[in-house]
Write a structure and sequence with these properties.
310 residues, Rossmann fold, UDP-galactose 4-epimerase, domain 1, 5-stranded parallel sheet, 11 helices, NmrA/Isoflavone_reductase-like, oxidoreductase, oxidoreductase activity, NmrA-like
Length: 310
């Protein structure tokens, strides 16, 4: 079996660190491109490390020699830096670019949210440059959706906000471990001709709000606090957030598309299955306590979302 040589940009994030570890555990040769001052001490020893300023085009072109696939895993603040790869890749033998996404194919309203618009602009720029791409969509991370307040779900506090029809509508979720395994499965050895210009969806579990609430009740031994927010209320939250450029608008938009039943379809129909991987169930995550922590949220953020439970 032949393997693709892969360069990764963005290795320290909550999700990206797991993806890099999974790629490093494959047999594919992996090279991490990192910025000056970036901590690389946790990277596996079998991963090549190259410091590079991506805005130095000549240096980036040199760093991409011998690379088949470039995978970007930058967080929200780094999305626009990916345009440097779009300028450099045509001057290399790189065959495929996977821009950072790890979300969903949002409709027009969702693309008005800053970071979503920036991701969309990167993908369109790559297409215009004639660069084959593979976008990976996860819906929402389970750790984010269930173990933070952002989507109105409070696992340790045994509380849930039903928005619109989210009590009966499913939400597409993936754990960080599953996403890492999927990236390795997709990119390590799959022929590039089978990946070019695909938008690949991942789906580990799809619980409804009621199913999450039932799992909470079994876990805590009592019914969770249930708060209901109408579709009209969330529409107003999203509209106001877009007008005021509120940083929490993306969370409210995610609640809206869950409650409207649209979220599951936004990962598309081209779903990738990781061979031999045992997917997590709601029972595993909630009842057996296997749900991991998401990155810590600052107290002001927690206070903002706390108000929704009152």
């Amino acid at each position: 079996m032949s393997h693709n040589s892969i360069a990764v940009y963005g290795h320290r994030g909550w999700a990206s660190s797991k993806v890099v570890s999974a790629l490093a555990a494959s047999s594919a040769p992996i090279k991490v491109l990192y910025r000056s001052g970036s901590d690389i001490s946790s990277l596996p020893s079998n991963v090549a490390k190259i410091e590079v300023d991506v805005n130095d085009e000549a240096a980036l072109v040199a760093a991409l020699q011998g690379i088949d696939i470039v995978i970007s895993l930058v967080g929200h603040e780094g999305v626009t830096r990916q345009h440097a790869f779009i300028k450099a890749i045509p001057k290399t033998a790189v065959k495929l670019f996977s821009p950072s996404d790890l979300a969903a194919r949002y409709e027009e309203e969702g693309l008005r949210i800053g970071v979503n618009a920036e991701k969309d602009a990167v993908e369109k720029a790559a297409q215009e440059a004639g660069i084959p791409t593979t976008v990976v969509l996860t819906g929402n991370f389970a750790e984010f959706a269930i173990n933070t307040y952002a989507l109105g779900v409070d696992y340790p506090g045994n509380r849930i906000i039903f928005t619109g029809e989210s009590a009966t509508q499913p939400i597409n979720l993936c754990t960080r471990d599953y996403v890492g395994a999927a990236y390795a499965s997709i990119f390590a050895s799959t022929p590039i001709s089978q990946l070019s210009n695909r938008c690949i969806g991942l789906s580990e579990l799809k619980p409804t709000g009621n199913e999450i609430a039932d799992a909470f009740e079994k876990k805590h031994g009592r019914a969770p606090l249930k708060v209901v927010h109408s579709s009209e209320k969330i529409d107003a939250e999203v509209k106001t957030g877009l007008e005021e450029k509120n940083p929490f608008t993306l969370a409210f938009y995610c609640r809206k598309i869950w409650g409207s039943g649209k979220q599951v379809g936004m990962v598309g129909k081209d779903l990738w299955e990781v061979e031999g991987y045992e997917k997590s169930s709601l029972e595993d995550l909630i009842l057996k306590g296997k749900l991991g922590q998401y990155r810590p949220m600052p107290p002001p953020v927690l206070e903002f979302f706390e108000a929704g439970f009152r």
